[in-house]
Amino acid sequence: MSVFGLKEEEQNDEVACYHMARYISSNEAAWRILNFFAHERHLTVVHLAIHLDNNHRVYFSAETARERVSVLRPTTLSAFFELCRGDEFASTRLFPQVPNYYTWDMSKKKWKRRVQGRFVVGHSEIRRPDALGRVYTLHPNDVECYFLWMLLHTVRGPRSLLVLLAVNETLCET
């Protein structure tokens, strides 16, 4: 909407000026008519690392180089494999679904069950808030990692990278 006018006296009605200058696009109008949340929605998004065995991304300085190389810290992926070995519920989930039910503890570098959110039907001890897991995207030219990415979106509850490399009980090299 656009309004143009000429007046001799200056009118200082801020509310009227706001309403006259406000623009609502068709997208915003549809969201408001359908009662969707347009603002004040803050979802937790957890970025999930993906890497081949012993190909962790490592950040170091000159002082911490020896320590970082000698002890590889767990990543979200390696901790997911460990979680699937010890938690029956986690072994029924895909890698991108883990942040829906577990939180990533940065200090301990491990997954722990969520304590907030709605209870999951059939599992009285498991909660699910509004959280999303996002696996870093990979280019198909990085063939090994790309197919690992695809497997992690298909195979439920893998206990290790070797489980993903096994086809009909035959261990494949790639």
Automatic annotation (TrEMBL):
It comes from the Eukaryota. This is Uncharacterized protein LOC106463617.
